[in-house]
Predict the structure.
Amino acid sequence: MPEPSTPPPPGLISEQDVEQEIQRLFLAQAGSGLVIRVYGEEGGTAENIEAFREMLTSLRMYDYGSAAGDVLVDAPNRQILTRALSVLAREQHQKRILDHVLTTFGRHLIDPLALILDTTPEGTLISRLSVLRDVFLAQIVELKLTQESQSMLSEDLKRLLTDDYLSMVAEHEERVQRPRVRRLAQQILRLVGSTFHKALRGWPEHAERIASMVARRLQGKVQLREVPTLIRDQICHAIEEFLWVETANEIEGALFSLFAENKGVMHEPPRELDRSLYSEFANACWEIIAEYC
């Protein structure tokens, strides 16, 4: 009978951990006296995005321009773009963005930590221990002993470093290291959450700045059929750039410090941040804008 498959080790960060971090961030904000305002209205109102909604409605009437031929229209101005971007200042939308950020960075930064704890037969730790055994056996051959001495030493080593023994060592290492690695994972989660939350907290002002940037790129007449793609691409590009500038250096610097403080857990530097992840975050922001405008 085939041996039952070994269940994968439990993840270092769960969905509940992400939810708790988001709650921590916004509960701390609630106690700070901070009130998010969108163009002077607490929490934002439907009127704030009416112009942007009307523009999208008009585009839908033309099936996003597919039947509009070469009709030229004015590109959306800074005021319209600011109102649309201001949707992201609402707490429920920022929670949604942070959930996406924390989950994504969980895969990128935290999941690799779990590899050092993988004690399954195909896991990283068992593989490294097996390689170590093979290295020892190869070194015995390199000693150029007599055949009898080489066989005796090799057999004794094999009897000591059996698969069962290596599994026991790996399981012991997992028990000792898991609490340490989980603590490091929690610190990374908090670092990422706090850094992105700080960037999003001043969103009304950032929305105006991003809108001005996009408006400069879009100014003039544009073909009606191209408007949806132009708006989406320019807004996503601007949000991606904003989030990268506001968070990447701070996160990378803090990660190097964290890993330096935890050399007993991690012997390699942290992975570099993947810029393409920020494109995912920007697209998530656009989905919210398109959904609520």
Q: What stands out?
A: The first strand starts at residue 37 and ends at 38. Residues 47-115+177-292 form one domain. The chain is about 70% helix and 5% strand.
